[in-house]
């Protein structure tokens, strides 16, 4: 009923290939965008901005970057955290070396550095595949975090080895550092995330995306039909690392405000990988769903007892939280091994043919 | 599922502003009773909690206002720490971040949110400069004080004797472990000893064979340890295994956890740890705690004579004294965050006051002022006698003349890097 497609005729191939062949999809997306751009910022408190809205967006972007590499091009990577670190440190160095630089330009440029590093560590992917490639990216993870610790130039010889985000302003508004308001930072993050998501959707639908998918599904067959595997894999590494690097810069500059090297260690890589896997490999929307589950849900669960007026010891609450989120992950993966995105697709399909199933 | 997202966010939005609204002073504590550092966190958190429970039970709070001492669990994770800070800051009079990582993260925020940050014996040493760090307090002593006192103890009063010696700093490769390096480097240059830095990565905490191999190769005269959590136990067992002379091995105050030494028992004899708190099993305070807290079954503490538990008591005492001071200054019971700042800035923990509190000898007397947010109380050297920590020195005092210029330099650097950084102009 809600998703009835009757009357929506496609009269050209162009219409058939449109981003939203069904009008309701476009409507739903519009609704979400209105929520994200208008409703949430108007209603959210500082707490919601800082612990739910901004982190979900940033983690989604990081997962989106990883998903391009792992989900679309089929190259398993365990180095996401380190590539985020490259973006963050690149941004920090640019801002401190060239304080006149526009912070948003710096964030967008910092992805270029991580793309470069990503391509470098992607070279082994031309020879090795699957788990073996995962080990190569794991090497990148360890090496880069070690580099963040040992290369004092990266953190401007700070005694504690951490980087602190300075106050940066743009058109009279502080966008980063302690003086920046959460709402400004949220809008910066939202703008960049929306832009990159739009680009990613179109990239994966286009020629490059098809090349990646062919490489993922069967690389020998892809090579036989004339796809240049080197180009396909390395572009996947470059685009993926670019997005991940931008996510890393946002992570530190728009949210955390300070970072120490071990922040970018393997737990962060795993977290992003879990978001991508639970959201659904090879999907764009899945990253958002996964981030809501992994990043947003624990925060919401923590507020529930207080909301209901029940007093629970904080440590116990933390344990309960880990158990609940853990079992939810298992639950979702059992009912839909292909992730939350696939779950939504099935629901949508059922809705379209409802109330007359085949 | 898109609707689920909307729903989840909508619920979250509607939950906003939930917090303690009841009467009283809301003093949250960002604890870590879970995670890799829980073993050292639990006794400290128990001590803090029990002291506040006792005040509520015995005196009905402070100045007649009950203290709502609530815990927010971080598991020592910086991300959770920031979440807890955001969650509690609306009504809180203070934030106790409990990790150097979280401290570094919330330090800039507290300056704009105007909430005092209380980090007793940890955090960023230049926080002592109250003019620059208006909202940050790390009484009674900073890590730089600790480094200075440890070096004095090694020199046994004659700093000239350090010339040509070799001191190794075995430290966690983390902001916390790196804290003493600037002051130790400056002292090495001044007194002519050689400083060997031996970092222990977070992943290597439990297996330090490489580090101790390096120690055997370098043959330092002394090993100074800046360790926490699993790293302490790892280092101490490794030192025993490699037969490093224990009396040349000195830890910072977070490396003097009873349980870590109990593992090696007799073999750990001679290991020393600098400490600004000392367990006093016979203190009158403990009797009060027994009547008002333990006997009522309101405590979970296991060993109430352990160094860390009693340090937790001292930490809550510092906060309670600051609250009382703030009430006195502002003539109101229900103080707010800005008023508590004045209390923390005018602390005067004298011998006489400690006597009144029944806490004589648990912490050296100290006082704070607007430009001195640390107090620089000095500390004792505690020594492991095979069963427990015993006092092994008179009160040592940090070399203020040496540390003050460094504090001024580093705090100025911080303020510059974070410009515009409001400083306390009224303070000279």
From TrEMBL, chain A:
Subcellular localization: Cell membrane
Membrane topology: Multi-pass membrane protein
UniProt-listed InterPro entries: ABC_transp_permease, LivM-like
Protein name per UniProt: Amino acid/amide ABC transporter membrane protein 2 (HAAT family)
Alphabetized GO MF terms: branched-chain amino acid transmembrane transporter activity
Highest taxon, organism lineage: Bacteria
GO CC field: plasma membrane
Pfam families associated with the record: BPD_transp_2 (PF02653)
The UniProt record lists the keyword Transcription regulation: no
Keyword field contains Transferase: no
Keywords linked to the UniProt accession: Cell membrane, Membrane, Transmembrane, Transmembrane helix
Primary subcellular site in the record, as a coarse category: membrane
Transmembrane segments: 26-43, 49-69, 76-95, 101-123, 130-148, 184-203, 234-254, 266-284, 316-335
From TrEMBL, chain B:
KW Calcium (keyword) present: no
InterPro entries named among the record's database cross-references: Leu-bd (IPR028081), Peripla_BP_I (IPR028082)
Signal peptide: 1-22
Boundaries of every Leucine-binding protein domain copy: 29-386
Family: Belongs to the leucine-binding protein family.
PANTHER family linked: BLR6548 PROTEIN
Name of the protein this chain belongs to: Amino acid/amide ABC transporter substrate-binding protein (HAAT family)
Lineage per the UniProt record: Bacteria, Pseudomonadati, Pseudomonadota, Alphaproteobacteria, Rhodobacterales
